[in-house]
Amino acid sequence: MGFLDLLVVASMPVIQVLLISGLGALMATHYFDNLLSPNFRKSLNKVVFLVFTPALVFSSFAKSVTLEDMISWWFMPVNVGLTFLIGGIIGWILVKLLKPNLKVEGLIIAACSSGNMGNLPLVIVPAICNENGGPFGEKEVCHNNALSYASFSMALGGIFIWTYTYRTIRSRAMKFKALEAADLIIKVPNNGLDSNAETALLKGNNNNDNVAVQVPPSDYVGDFENQNIGDKDQANGKGKESIWHKMIELLSELLAELMSPPAIATFFGFIFGAVAWLRNLIVGDNAPFRVVQDSLQLLGNATIPCITLLLGSNLTQGFKSTSVKPLTLICIIIARLLLLPVIGLFIVKAAANFGFLPLDPLFQYTLVMQYAMPPAMNISTMAQLFDVGNEECSVILLWTYGAASIALTAWSTFLLWVLA
C-alpha cells in the first residue's frame, strides 16, 4: 500500500473518534439541553463500567482467544508496565524541571505515565481492520484479534491505573490538602480578622486571594491529623510503617482492581476461550447456550459509542479554565505523544527481534500504540475523588487529546508502514 492509502486507513478511526466525541461535547452543552449532564455522565459511566464493557470483553475473549494465544501474549503485561514506569520517570523529571504547584505535580506524573489503555484502543485498533485494503489480513479475523488485544490492554491498564496512578495522585493530593490546612491555621489568626471575617474566610466566601483558603472536606481531616501524628511518632522512632503493612495495602488495592467487572470478565473470557468444551457451550451455530454469547455481544456493541460520547463530554470542562501554564502543557504533550512512543517503538522492535512476540503484526501495532495513547480519562475521576486539581486536569486532558488527534494519525500511519 502507498503512503496515502496508509494515511487514509490510519486516519479513519481517529476521525470517527473526533466526530462522535464532538457530538458528545455538544450534547453536554445547553444547545442539547445538557443532555449529557454531569449526573447523567456519572450514571452512564457506571453502566459502561458494570455492564457494557464486561460484556464486550467476555464475548470477544471467549470467541477468539485460545490457551496458546494467552501464552504467546506474555509480553503485553510487561509492555504495559514499561509504559507506566518510563512515563512516570519522564513525568518526575518534568516536575523537577518545571517546579509546578504541588496540586499539579501528581497530574503531570499521571498524565505522562498513564495512557488511555482501554477506551481508545477499543475504538482505534478494531477500526483499523474495518478499512478496505487493510494491512492486517481478513477483516473478521483481524477485528476479533483486535478486540481481544484491546480488551486485554484495557484490563491490564486498569490494574496499573488504579494502583500506581491512584497512589501517585493520592499522595500529592494529601500533601496539598495538609499544606492548605496548615496555611489556613496560620493565616486566620495572623490577619487580625474579626469573628465575622473569620467565618467568611472559613466558608470560602472572602474575595481576597491572598488570605482566602477554602477549608478541605471533613473527610480529609482525619488523614491530616493522622499524618501529623505519624510524623511526630516517626521522629520519636515509633511510627515507622512496616514493609509488611505496605505490602498488604498494595495487595489489597490490587485485589480490589482484580475484582472489578472488566477484570472479572477478562478472567472468565480467558477460561471459556481456553477450555474447548466451555467455549462450545456458548460459541458456534450449534452451541446450546449461544443466546448467551449473542446477548453479550449485543450489549458489548454499546460500549464504544457510549465511551466515545463520554470522552467528548468530559473534555468540555477544559474550556472553562486556563490554570495550567502553556509550557507545562507543551512538555506533557511532547513527553506523552512523541518521546514515549519513540522509546516504545525501540522496545517493541527489540522484543520482536529476540522472538518474544507473536508473528502477528497487529499485536506489535497494539503494543506500540499503547505508548502513544493520550492520558487516561480515569485521571479526571481521581482528581474529582480527592477534590484537587479538577480544573487543571480538565485543561491537561483537553489539550493532550486535541494534540492526540494529530499524533495518533501520524503514529498509526507510520506503524502501518513499518509493521504491515
From TrEMBL:
InterPro entries: Mem_transp_PIN-like, PILS1/3/4/5/7. Its main location: endoplasmic reticulum. Keywords: Auxin signaling pathway, Endoplasmic reticulum, Membrane, Transmembrane, Transmembrane helix, Transport. It is a multi-pass membrane protein. It is found in: Endoplasmic reticulum membrane. The chain crosses the membrane at residues 6-32, 74-95, 107-128, 148-166, 254-278, 298-315, 327-348, 398-419. The keyword DNA-binding does not apply. The keyword Zinc does not apply. Involved in cellular auxin homeostasis by regulating auxin metabolism. Regulates intracellular auxin accumulation at the endoplasmic reticulum and thus auxin availability for nuclear auxin signaling. Belongs to the auxin efflux carrier (TC 2.A.69.2) family. This is Auxin efflux carrier family protein.
